[in-house]
Amino acid sequence: MRLFVAIAPPPAVLDELDALVEPLRSRRQDLRWTNREAWHVTLAFLGQVDEPTVARLLPRMECAARRHGTIALAFAGAGAFPAVGRANVLWSGLSGDRGPLARLAESVAAGANRVGTPPPDKGRRFQPHLTLARCRMPADVTELVAALADYQGKSWTADRVHLVRSRLGVTDQPRYTSLASWPLRARDRDTDPAP
User: Fold this and answer.
1) Residue 17 near residue 130, CB atoms below 8 Å
2) What pairing do the DSSP bridges indicate for beta strands 175-183 and 129-139?
3) Contacts of 171 (CB under 8 A, 6+ apart)
4) What DSSP letter does each residue of 19-87 carry, written as one string?
5) Residues 184, 111, 40: CA angle, nearest 5 degrees
6) What is the DSSP letter of 195?
7) What pLDDT tens digit does each residue of the chain (195 aa) get?
8) Which of 60, 31, 69 is nearest to 145 (CA)?
9) What would the DSSP string read from start to end of 121-171?
10) 179: which residues sit within 8 A by CB, 6+ positions away?
């Protein structure tokens, strides 16, 4: 199975981002715009994982989620991988509790590594984002990044971690199925730092 671990933003937040992106889609039909129904924030891409490894992975992901509190986030701005002038991916970034989000991503990657399925991008700096579009050929997306640069979305709380299966089909859009999810620990107002 082709797997990744992610957080799922709430529908109202995705609706707001979708409304902002909608007019940009028609301006750049050369891009493969991602499906709003599949939008997520990846914590770790795991690649191909066999069923016995998935069974060992589940308790590790549950443990990683239990160690971390809920995280206050908002979508903000945009960028591109590897660069705006020759992009393969156009994305919306995140603001808010990025430090706790990065620590959650580290825990997820460490748990996957312990069961023998280290993320293929291990060692790369975690860049939290939501993929808006992919480019068939490297493309200049400077105007799109500029159009989204000042965006600051509604704040939302990440409160669950999902193990997701990705199935590549005959269409350009992969299909995602959540195999399991685990709640993040509720923040204790007396002991946890403020978001």
Assistant:
1) yes
2) unpaired
3) none
4) HHHHHHHHH-TTEEEPPGGG--EEEEEEEE--HHHHHHHHHHHHHHHHTSB-EEEEEEEEEEES-GGGE
5) 50
6) -
7) 999 999 999 999 999 999 999 999 999 999 999 999 999 999 999 999 999 999 999 999 999 999 999 999 999 999 999 999 999 999 999 999 999 999 999 999 999 999 998 887 766 789 999 999 999 899 999 999 999 999 999 999 999 999 999 987 666 678 899 999 999 998 765 345 444
8) 31
9) TTTSPP--EEEEEEEEEEE--HHHHHHHTT-B---EEE-EEEEEEEE--SS
10) 3, 54, 163, 164, 165
User: CB within 8 A of 62, min separation 6: which ones?
Assistant: 182
* 33-53 as b/e: b if 16+ CB within 10 A: bbeeeebbbbbbbbbebeeeb
Q: Answer whether 0.85 is exceeded by the pTM.
A: yes
8 A C-beta contact, residue 150 and residue 76: no
